[in-house]
Amino acid sequence: MITNGAVAFDGGSKGIDFGGLHPHEVMTKAKVLTEMHQPAVVAAVVRVRKTGILERLTQWRLDDGMDNSVGGRPILVHDLAILTGLMILAGEKKPLLITELRELFQHRLSAESRALLELPAPATTFVGHLAEEKRWYNNTYNAFHRIVECMNPYPYDMRFAKTHVAIKHIVDNHDAARASFFKARLDEFTERFLLMSFNEQPRRLRRVDDKMSLSIDQTFIASPTTKVYSRKTLDAQAAEEAIINDQAKLTPGAVDLSNGFYVKSGGIRGDDRPGSVIPFDAKNANRKKSSVVYQRGYALTIAVRVDHEKPGSERFPHLAVAATLAIPNVGASEEAVKVLTSAIKTGLKPGLADTDKEYFANAIHERLHTPAVALGYVPSTDYRKDREYREAAPGGALYVNDGLFCPATPEPMLTATPDYLNNRIDKDTFRARINARLPYRLIQKEKPDARGKVPMMCPALGASPTVVCPIREMMKTAAKKSRPEIEHDDIPAELDRICKQHSVSFEHVEIQKRAQGLVYGTEEWETFHQYARNGIESLNAQIKTGGTSDIQTASRRRTRGIAAASIFSAFLLVQHNLTRIASFLKKEFEDYAQILVRQTAPSLRSRDAHWTNAYTATTPNVVIPIVLPLTEPPLRT
Fold it and tell me: Which residues pair with 380 in a beta bridge?
């Protein structure tokens, strides 16, 4: 009962004066809680059901022996409510916190929405609101973590800090096979939601092109906890702590063991094989500590759809079609292969896969190139300045950058890439040498055979030779046109098979390891590469701090662990996709409206419509009636 600003508990005599605040404001900490519109809730529910993840969660629990159908109290908050609530909060640009979900379920849903999400009606009286608030929070917390448990690769308590002895015990007993299995579930969760958002586009946008070209990059996601343990010092720290019997004298260690050091600047980012015992920070051991800036958290690998046919055009919105979250500096190549595989689920054929220097230019071929090519993608990458990208090939040929070349190719052309990347030549000289080097490429004679062999021949042979060589006789039927001439001084002293035989067989796999979809260094390659990098960097900037999703700020998603971070990242990326689709369609509508306006005849001003205008040479298009007086005017006297 409320009387003059005071609230009586259970009708007792004891009252609390809240001054000018209403009891409802006290319950909500003066936060304005608006009721969600029913259509918005229905749209979120439909999108969650489209993913098919509810059925997968049920199946995963059955596979893990977590059947809750027998015994125990009935579940108050179900999976559908949690996933729908996260979808709504992401759409409102609100923090993805358990308290925000609790407020949504307790205060902001209509009766129809509660029935749709199978949520009971909360108590609305002020009496006992503290217990009611705690009840909704606990049920929401438990419901969210029931979902996390189905996909958590690191199932240990993350509520408290751990000693190094405890950390060593967890690390030594870590089940790598189970972690990989549950990580695959996390990736499937993200894949299903991103695929749903991709399919929310009109078909005309999804099918503008029958190929899916991607731009891939890795971005940093901060962890709610900042302490990170190091494998290099873990054994020594655990041994020191084992001697100390007093718990109060121990220094608290890490809480989350699934985060790690991410090199922000001044160092080298690692790409260690999953399960490797060599820590990545050994690569930065010889660098000055002050020059290397680290961040603590996770690494999010994202693949964005780009237009390889018309770079720079706006034929479709640039959406995140695949993503995966992992520990930094471990398995970067494998994570890239995962997003490449996931993107194929869109139903489009694989196209170009563009990356920065941390991937194709740095990775071991067997870990990235071979799987990517096997999936049907063609790499597109820049090169690193600390490598030559020049190798000897069978038969005396040369692997240079992304192709096979004649051994008599002039030396300045062979070293064009490292010379340019190390600032020994300017861009115009580099471009000129790259274009001049193209005629020296070996010519593919036939397609790969069943054994994976590809016959390649000298560029001075065949019906369409591209160079003139003094040791090769040109066919009489070859077109009469100007061609580069090989100098005698450039011809090797000892001729190998490529200079003596009509063709030499090469392993197709070896050629694919180095091949690019566009010839490196050409204007066509540079146009696409810059456009593709701008596409992924633009997305990174928009989803990070200050953008529409603010995915980087850990205070907006305080639940610990890589599983929770991966779930939150999926919803934020989905909302980013929906925002981009809506913005794209809105722009299309505005452009269409402008066309309609231009097609409509402009309305005349009142002056031009009713009076003759000598200045504009216009006459009125309406007849103005002249009214004559019925009687004669009076005589002037």
Answer: 354
What are the two backbone dihedrals, phi and then psi, of residue 297, each rounded to the nearest 5 degrees? 170, -140
For the cut 70, the answer to whether the pLDDT of residue 151 exceeds it is yes
Task: Report pTM.
Answer: 0.83
Distance from C-alpha of 143 to C-alpha of 145, rounded to nearest angstrom: 6
CA atoms within 13 A of residue 523's CA, in its CB half-sphere: 3
**What is the residue-wise DSSP string for 557-578?**
----SHHHHHHHHHHHHHHHHH
Asked if 545 contacts 556 with a C-beta cutoff of 8 angstroms, the reply is no
User: How confident is the prediction for the chain on average, in pLDDT?
Assistant: 84
Residues 6+ apart with CB under 8 A from 141: 98
pLDDT of residue 626: 55
460 in helix, strand or coil?
Answer: coil
Tens of pLDDT, residue by residue over 29-52, are 777 778 889 999 999 999 999 999
pLDDT of residue 637: 57
If one counts every other C-beta atom within 10 angstroms of the C-beta of residue 114, the result is 16
H, E, C per residue of 495-516 = CCHHHHCCCEEEEHHHHHHHCC
Reference 334, options 222, 446, 183; nearest CA is 183
**pLDDT at 267 > cutoff 80:** no
Task: List phi, psi (to 5°) of 99.
Answer: -65, -35
Neighbours of 297 (CB within 10 A): 25
> Average pLDDT, stretch 476-505?
88
Residue 37 structure tokens: 């519109």
Positive or negative torsion for Cα 350, 351, 357, 360: positive
> How far is the C-alpha of 458 from the C-alpha of 495, rounded, in Å?
12
CB 442 within 8 A of CB 458: yes
Q: Which of 332, 352, 359 is CA-nearest to residue 220?
A: 332
